[in-house]
Every structure is written in structure tokens, then in C-alpha cells.
Specification:
- It contains 12 helices and 17 strands.
- It folds into 3 domains: about 45 residues, no CATH class; about 240 residues, Zn peptidases (Aminopeptidase, 3-Layer(aba) Sandwich); about 140 residues, 2-Layer Sandwich (Alpha-Beta Plaits).
- The longest helix has 25 residues.
- Helix 7 crosses helix 8.
- The strands form 4 sheets. The chain has a 6-stranded mixed beta sheet. The chain has a 5-stranded antiparallel beta sheet with strand order 11-10-12-9-13, covered by helices on one side.
- The N terminus is likely disordered.
- The chain is elongated and about 100 Å long.
- By secondary structure, the protein is an alpha+beta fold.
- It starts with 5 loop residues before the first helix and ends in a 5-residue tail after the last helix.
Length: about 450
């Protein structure tokens, strides 16, 4: 896509100037003909080179969005190569490397000094969700309509990446800045996990993620704990429930206690809990063993083999739970202790012998909270983007940049994107004016780190 620039409009204007027959030929030659010829060749040159070396944020986002990069086929290999080549061509002061995280899934890492000297880290993920059917789009993809650029990935997060790339070039050489364009944010956080595991020397004072809320600063996020647990009771006939020990009755009490306990943990952010699934019945065999490797962590494999009979009290119950901790007190160990205490209380009050047969944490990552004043530079330089808006982490999901910032309690970390909408949906768009404001914010921020 080629966007007409100011000198092109000048050409059109000059060509349309009416020629006065009484004017001197010298005036025509020097003030109309020569400028028109000069600008004409400039336009031709720009048109020929814009596809291969786009030099504005809107041309870059169009180029990036044309490169599909979802969890299939080439994955992020093509877009990573494009970004790496762009930086090598336009930013000779940067060391640029492609680092494989898995087959066809490379991270792009670029830095101006050494990784250990990083004071500012700017990140953005290169993958998207799969494309939606074309007939679900009401605006043509890869088009600008009403000041919005429409394409898969425009909002999440190729618009932000384009603004960063354009800003790097326009800001020029820096010192103490590292860039990470990483894979697999939409699915398993593979790119970020790889970076954190392989580059512990990167410990910035300030982090900016180009993936975030629309034109809002997010300066913290809650963590994520996904776990399952299994209760064992004792079956009996439905006509004499008092002689049995219902695992599902006990699980109901335990889940209510978990919900209550989590609701009281609100500092600095509200903790939420979701009881995602419950299975109960009569145990056929034994309870499945815990996984022995990271490759075998499907929680459904831990559902006990059970049968169901309406006239029998269930002796086994299994639950899958998702907790978004906003409080440092909410840990896997604390959740397990809450379950154990709830079972003990239930058994004492009801003269039962329910047991916690299994507790398995499938996934656990910490959130982060940026200290007050730690991200003032971002707040100041991007004022025209966010206009003072700060999103509430208690209402948002997990952000994988927390894998870095949670280990750096004194660092400021902000996740923010240009004005956008319809992430992961048809008619996904990014606002062109906001994209340019974001690019200008990148330039101002990078100017704080002169070479």
C-alpha cells in the first residue's frame, strides 16, 4: 500500500496552476516546470522503493499485516525475518539476532550496547490468532477507512510494532535500549519464556510493551494459577445418604470457601476465581497419577474414570479451577491449604472422612505491580496517546511481560497500544492518527537514551 505524501500533493497543485500566456518563459521554467520535474522524479522513486523499504508507520503496519503469523504453517518465521532485515538495513547501530524458540518460531532481539547494559526494554509479540472468514469482514482487509487501518493483527499487536520500528529509525542511535519481538503470545507464551530463561542478564529499569489496552496505560497485571483437585469420599445408596460421604457435597462446600477466600485478597488488585469444570461420580479404577513431564499436562487426563448412577452417592469429585491472583498472599500453596482447611472443617462439622486425593498445579505465573513514579517517562512522552487513561488490572487478563517485570520489583512496566478495536475479530483496526502519536512517543522516549 502506498500513501500519498505532502510533496505529491505539491506536484498536483503545481501542475494545476493555470499558465498565464503573458508570463515570462523564465518564470515558467524556473518556478513551475523545474519544480514539477524534480518532484515528479521524487514521487516515482518513492513509489518504486516503498514496498521494499517502507519508511512510515502506516506503510510498516500494512507490510507486517500482509505477513501471516499465526499458529500454523510458517508460524512467525517470515515476519521475524522481515523485522530483522528492516532493523539491519535501517538501524546500523543495533546488533540484531534471530533466536529460535522452537521450529519456525524465532524471537528477534536487537540492542545498541550489550544485553547486560539494558536500561529500557521495548517488546511486542509477532503472532496473531488465525484469520476469520473473509465474509465476516464488513470493511475490506488491508484498507484505510475513516482514519482506521483494517487488517488481522493491526490492533494486536502489529500496529504497535510498526510504530516502534518507525520510531527507532526516526530517533536514531541510542544507548542502553533493547528490543524484543517475540513469538507465541497468543497460545503458550513460548517466546517470552525462552527469552526470560536464556537472558537473565536483561534487567531494565523501564519496560514498554506495544501490546496492551487501547490507548490506555496498564502498569500492572494479575498473575494466573490453574489447578485441579480431586476429593475422595465413600459411596452408599441414595436412600441412606447419611451413611455415605458424598464427594460432591464436600466439593460444593470447598468451592464456596475458595471463592470467599479469594474475594478477600484485594491488594493491590482484586483476586478473581473461576470454577471451570466439575466431574463427579463413582470411581471405576484408581485416580490417575500426576504428570511426569511438562509435555503431559492436559488437566483432563487427571479426571478419574467414573460411572454415574442416580441411586448411588458419588465417592469421587474432580474440579478444574482458574485463579487470577491480585494479592501476593494468593499462591498455589495457600490455595491448597485453603482446600485442606475447608475439608477438615467440613469433616468435623459433619462427622465425615473426606480426603484430598490430589492437588495439581498445571500453570502458575506471577503478576506485577509498577511502583508509583517508576513509569513517569512513558506517561509523559505518550500523553497524546493515552490522555491520562490508566486501565484497571483487576478487570484485565494476564500479560506475559510480567514474566520479566515480576522479577524486577523496582522497574516500571507499562503495556499500551495505540487506539484500536476488535482484537481477535473481523474488522480489526488501529487508528492511524493514534499510530502516528504512538510513533512520536517512541521517538521522544528513545531520545532519553542518547548514544
Amino acid at each position: 500500500m502506498y500513501v500519498m505524501e505532502s510533496h505529491q500533493w505539491l506536484t498536483v497543485t503545481l501542475i494545476l496552476i493555470p499558465v498565464n500566456p503573458s508570463s515570462s518563459k523564465v518564470f515558467h521554467i524556473f518556478f513551475i516546470v523545474f519544480p514539477c520535474i524534480y518532484v515528479f522524479f521524487i514521487v516515482i522513486w518513492k513509489s518504486m522503493t516503498s514496498d521494499t523499504h517502507p519508511d512510515s508507520a502506516i506503510q510498516l503496519v500494512d507490510a507486517l499485516c500482509h505477513i501471516r503469523s499465526f499458529n500454523e504453517g510458517a508460524f512467525e518465521a517470515d515476519i521475524a525475518s522481515y523485522i530483522a532485515d528492516y532493523l539491519k538495513t535501517h538501524c546500523p547501530w543495533l546488533t540484531v539476532i534471530l533466536e529460535e524458540t522452537a521450529q519456525s518460531r524465532p524471537n528477534v532481539i536487537a540492542y545498541d550496547s550489550t544485553l547486560a547494559d539494558t536500561r529500557l526494554l521495548i517488546v511486542g509479540h509477532t503472532d496473531t490468532v488465525p484469520p476469520s472468514p473473509t465474509d465476516q469482514w464488513t470493511v475490506p482487509e488491508f484498507s484505510i477507512n475513516n482514519g482506521r487501518y483494517y487488517a488481522l493483527g493491526a490492533a494486536d499487536a502489529k500496529g504497535g510494532i510498526a510504530a516502534v520500528l518507525d520510531g527507532i529509525v526516526k530517533a536514531g542511535p541510542t544507548s542502553g535500549v533493547t528490543y524484543l519481538f517475540y513469538t507465541d503470545e497468543e497460545y503458550a507464551f513460548g517466546g517470552m519464556k525462552h527469552f526470560v530463561s536464556n537472558h537473565p542478564e536483561v534487567q531494565p529499569d523501564l519496560i514498554l510493551s506495544a501490546c496492551g489496552a487501547s490507548a490506555e496505560m496498564t502498569a500492572g497485571c494479575r498473575g494466573c494459577i490453574e489447578f485441579s483437585y480431586t476429593l475422595r469420599g465413600r459411596s452408599g445408596h441414595a436412600s441412606r445418604p447419611h451413611l455415605s460421604e458424598s464427594a460432591i457435597d464436600a466439593m460444593h462446600v470447598v468451592n464456596q470457601r475458595l471463592i470467599s477466600w479469594c474475594s478477600q485478597r484485594t491488594k493491590p488488585y482484586k483476586t478473581s476465581i473461576n470454577i471451570a469444570a466439575i466431574h463427579a461420580g463413582l470411581l471405576r479404577n484408581t485416580i490417575p497419577p500426576l504428570p511426569t513431564s511438562d509435555s503431559d499436562v492436559n488437566p483432563e487426563k487427571l479426571i478419574p474414570d467414573m460411572r454415574h448412577a442416580a441411586n448411588n452417592v458419588p465417592d469421587v469429585a474432580w474440579a478444574l479451577v482458574d485463579v487470577r491472583p491480585g494479592d501476593a498472599d494468593v499462591t498455589p500453596a495457600a490455595l491448597e491449604q485453603c482446600i485442606t482447611d475447608s475439608i477438615d472443617k467440613y469433616n468435623t462439622e459433619n462427622d465425615k472422612h473426606i480426603e484430598l486425593a490430589q492437588f495439581f498445579v498445571r500453570f502458575h505465573v506471577d503478576g506485577y505491580h509498577s511502583p508509583e513514579g517508576s513509569f513517569d517517562a512513558i506517561q509523559r512522552h505518550f500523553a497524546t496517546v493515552h490522555n491520562g487513561a490508566i486501565s484497571n488490572p483487576s478487570e484485565r487478563g494476564y500479560i506475559d511481560v510480567a514474566m520479566i517485570s515480576s522479577q524486577l520489583p523496582n522497574a516500571g512496566c507499562v503495556c499500551m497500544a495505540p487506539l484500536k478495536a476488535n482484537d481477535h475479530s473481523p474488522d480489526e483496526w488501529v487508528d492511524v492518527a493514534s499510530l502516528m502519536d504512538y510513533r512520536d512517543g517512541i521517538v521522544r522516549l528513545l531520545n532519553d537514551y542518547p548514544a
